[in-house]
User: What shape does this take?
Amino acid sequence: MFGYIQYNKDALSEDDFALYRSYYCGLCKSIKQLYGVKATRILSNDLTFIEVLLSALNEPLEEVVEEKCMVNPLLKVTTRINKYDSYVAKMNVVLAYFKAVDDVHDEGRHKSMLKSLTKPFEEIKEEYPEKIQHIELALEKINQLENESCNDLDLLCNTFGRVMGEIVSYDAVFADELYSLGYHLGKFIYLMDAYDDLFEDIKKGTFNPLKKRSQDEHFDDDIKMMLEIFMGDAALSYEKLPIITHSDILRNILYSGVWAKYNQVREKRGEKKNESL
Assistant: This one.
């Protein structure tokens, strides 16, 4: 479900791209140190956005090191680590754990991944009991709705919005603003994922809340309008935060990167439409 909160490299300066990569590599290093090298496979750009966001908001002390890549030792990378890496790494694990649970339940896949993530997940649950409970309840609600073939798109998007709201709101002072930003990002992610998976779900006969709507004449335009509303609300929440540092990177993602990704999804959808004719 992740991979939609992306940067647009073409619109980033070389310095900003290098800075973003240093956060990405720092987060990868933190995941490896906490959970082992295999766990680095769960790292996503979506969670890197949260790392950059929290770092920009609070400007913590950072350790910047040039070293060998954790995954490919032949490469040299710059890692940037601060006090938020541990939290974001743990939220990566939480989301990967629930995805593995779904994969095992739905298709019998990723049993080894689920086994490797279960103990770390239980430890994280002990550390953040209330947050994980809220995430777990929301994801259980989504599973229930999807199993019932619920086509209430607002309800589904809103419920996943609660998941991302919980993850992003890691700051006592700006908790409400961060929750709102995460909430609207979550709505965007859920809808983008459903839109992206539509042809495959129709082919497999699996649930997708957009199946019925997809027959509408203006379906693609309607989906884009909804996505624009969700991201517009996310951007409004972001602009309420007193962020100056890294603002070019964060705005690149919110105003450009997500739409570059949308265009890829829309183009792929057009290709599959032509194949089916």
Observations:
- Residues 128-243 form one domain.
- Residues 175-204 form the longest helix (30 residues).
- The radius of gyration is 19 Å.
- The mean pLDDT is 93.
